[in-house]
Design a protein that fits this description.
Strand content: under 5%
Distance between the termini: 86 Å
Helix content: over 70%
Oligomer: single chain
Number of strands: 0
Structural class: mainly alpha
Order of helices and strands: H
Shape: rod-shaped
């Protein structure tokens, strides 16, 4: 196999580098979104149930 010309070699490295960076960004934002969404959902479900729990306490008393 003949060695690749320099411009082709640099082009393949550039494309693979961009691909890796793009993949890393996608993975990072996906993980951030999942963690944030879980925390957000847990916080607001507890918050939205608070009046209901207070109403239950009043019914018991």
């Amino acid at each position: 196999m003949a060695p690749l010309p320099l411009w082709k070699k640099s082009l393949t490295y550039k494309i693979s580098g961009q691909f890796i960076v793009m993949l890393a960004i996608i993975i990072r934002y996906t993980i951030t979104y999942v963690i944030h969404y879980r925390a957000y959902r847990a916080f607001y479900t507890q918050k939205s149930l608070q009046p209901f729990r207070q109403a239950q306490l009043w019914m018991v008393v």
